[in-house]
Amino acid sequence: MVNFSSLKCLSDSLHALQRFINTVFRDLIVQGIVLPYMDDIVILSKKESEAIDRLKKVFKVSSDYGLVIMFGKCQFLHRKIEFLGHVIENNKLFPSPSKTKSVVHYPEPKTTKKVQRFLGLTGYFRKFIPAYSVIAKPLSDIKRLLSILMQNKKLPLTS
Hints:
By secondary structure, the protein is of the alpha+beta class. The protein contains six helices and six strands, in the order βααββαβββααα.
């Protein structure tokens, strides 16, 4: 992962920063060599020799545009990295342990708003969990029911 210091002037406008990075590294993005996000760039490769060749290309483009690389913030030739809340390892994407930990330790939701927050948090994992919507349906149904009851001012219910 490569990090740049010379882009701090663009950091006030995140959209401008991302557009700049996408423009500068467009050819490498199209070729599937890099995955940029703001001032960080993941260099994708399967072999160490390929990684070094691709790293040289990133250094060349960076030099051509006068970008200063923050080597102290860089990670080179890692087989496993954490990037944007994901772990990338062996060409596979996993949720980061910090994300799964937040779900495991989430307090039991007891209000409509807390159920909604929990569903929002777990919705992040839908790409990792087959049939997520089926699993989450009971909570979604409870949230919907509580919402309807609150609108009708029939809480609390007595039997």
